[in-house]
Automatic annotation (TrEMBL):
<protein>
    <submittedName>
        <fullName>NDP-deoxyglucose-2,3-dehydratase</fullName>
    </submittedName>
</protein>
<feature type="domain" description="dTDP-4-dehydro-6-deoxy-alpha-D-glucopyranose 2,3-dehydratase">
    <location>
        <begin position="13"/>
        <end position="215"/>
    </location>
</feature>
<dbReference type="Pfam" id="PF03559">
    <property type="entry name" value="Hexose_dehydrat"/>
</dbReference>
<dbReference type="GO" id="GO:0016829">
    <property type="term" value="F:lyase activity"/>
</dbReference>
<dbReference type="InterPro" id="IPR005212">
    <property type="entry name" value="EvaA-like"/>
</dbReference>
<dbReference type="InterPro" id="IPR038153">
    <property type="entry name" value="EvaA-like_sf"/>
</dbReference>
<feature type="domain" description="dTDP-4-dehydro-6-deoxy-alpha-D-glucopyranose 2,3-dehydratase">
    <location>
        <begin position="230"/>
        <end position="432"/>
    </location>
</feature>
Length: 439
């Protein structure tokens, strides 16, 4: 394929092989290390927070939530504090009347498949302003200079509210007219090819998925503005009902967590740990570094239940409260949990609709794939994503409190407003917005 030319005939298998070849062409190595081997990182003597010597990038502190009810009226845990707004950007261009997207083969230290399909630009503010003293970020000007391209989507979106404190990234797609050569770690792909790759496990990274979820909604089921406003009104009312007080605390004050030579973990060991790694990456702006990562202990499950009403497909969304979300809650998949923690619980104590998803016959499973979460901050964080069709018995027209039926178009319209649809729901929305699945 000539540099800068589209690749309308690229088969998914060819892209998989290309990603593997990029992994072979560069040295990648991730080694777990003790905290005292971190370079440029230290525990602050006054708070115990894990901070970078530059005062930039991110830090790991503590957070506390108090709720009026629930199994844990007071909850404390470590949290990632990264106040900078990064850029997750995809460059688009039309070749022969067909829209293509410039995707990158990028290594992230926490991903189980080291090299995944990433956005054109995936960079924190510290990275693209040169705090890391590394090589410049390729194609950055197209996303920082408005005169270089035409905006298709430009939205501030939240990250994982379970592990980040009020973190947002700029999710942006821009359309260019000029010739843009594709570097050796980049490739122009059609949306159809990307959609097919979303069916592969651990191949399209989280940052690509969240940007793709911002594509304009498909006409089918998009709804008129009134129902979209009603969804937003419902979300606002549910947020107001949350009885939760959240405050930042020192890492040393996260009661129930202990720090050892190579991890910070809960007692008993459950949920996630904070660990440290040393990284070598031949195709990154900085070839070697060390950093902390959050390591979930078990895989998650994020799934939408879907059914049709009057012939129109709907998704069952849930009010997802997460400790680190700026507004307390966002629209979430029907089910978001770690199934193993609920395996032996009686039906009444399991998350609603978990059994519906787990016992769905193959003919009812419209989509399923395993995807990794943000590999720059999380180690081996993987979840199964699914869309499961149900009938009225497990999924009634009037769902429980905190749940609501919306069309895919309504959810897409709300997501494009920013800060209203969580990152797991946006992964599943990307499956619909790219046409990987049609309900």
């Amino acid at each position: 394929m000539a540099p800068g030319r589209g690749d309308p005939g690229a088969r998914p298998e060819e892209v998989v092989d290309w990603l593997a070849s990029r992994a072979r062409a560069n040295r990648f190595r991730v080694e777990r290390i003790a905290f005292d081997r971190l370079r440029g990182w230290s525990f602050a003597p006054d708070t115990g927070d894990l901070v970078h010597d530059s005062g930039r990038f991110f830090s790991i502190g503590g957070i506390e939530a108090e709720t009026a009810d629930g199994a844990h009226p007071v909850w404390r845990q470590p949290i990632i504090d990264q106040p900078e707004v990064g850029i997750l950007g995809i460059l688009a261009k039309d070749f022969g009347g067909v829209r293509h997207y410039l995707m990158q083969a990028k290594m992230e230290p926490g991903n189980p498949r080291a090299v995944q399909l990433s956005p054109t630009v995936q960079a924190t503010h510290s990275n693209y302003t040169g705090v890391h003293k590394g090589a410049p970020v390729a194609y950055l000007d197209y996303f920082t200079d408005p005169s270089r391209a035409h905006p298709v989507a430009d939205v501030l979106q939240s990250e994982h509210g379970e592990w980040f404190h009020r973190k947002f990234n700029r999710n942006v797609i821009v359309l260019v007219d000029e010739e843009v050569p594709a570097g050796e770690n980049f490739r122009w792909l059609t949306l159809d090819t990307i959609a097919a790759l979303l069916h592969h496990d651990n191949l399209v990274n989280m940052d690509s998925r969240t940007v793709l979820s911002c594509l304009p909604p498909a006409p089918e089921g998009s709804g008129d503005p009134a129902p979209v406003r009603s969804v937003e009104d419902w979300l606002a009312a549910e947020r107001a009902r949350l009885q939760r007080r959240v405050r930042r605390i020192a890492l040393r004050d996260t009661e129930g967590w202990v720090r050892t030579a190579d991890s910070i973990r809960r007692v008993p060991d459950r949920g996630f740990r904070v660990v440290a790694v040393a990284v070598e990456a031949g195709n990154r702006e900085v070839p070697q570094w060390t950093q902390p990562l959050f390591e979930p202990l078990l895989p998650g499950l994020h799934a939408f239940v879907t059914r049709r009403f009057s012939g129109v497909p709907h998704l069952l969304v849930r009010i997802g409260a997460e400790i680190g979300l700026a507004q307390g809650a966002e629209l979430a998949p029907t089910v978001s949990c770690v199934p193993e923690y609920h395996r032996d619980r009686p039906p009444g104590r399991r998350p609603p609709f978990l059994t519906t998803v787990e016992t769905a016959p193959p003919g009812r499973i419209r989509y399923t794939a395993v995807h990794s979460e943000e590999g720059g901050r999380f180690l081996n964080a993987v979840s199964r994503y699914a869309i499961v069709e149900a009938d009225e018995t497990p999924a009634p027209p009037r769902p429980p409190s905190g749940y609501r039926w919306v069309t895919p178009g309504q959810l897409s319209a709300v997501a494009r407003r920013g800060g209203r649809v969580n990152v797991q729901a946006r992964t599943l929305l990307s499956v619909l917005s790219t046409g990987a699945v049609r309900l």
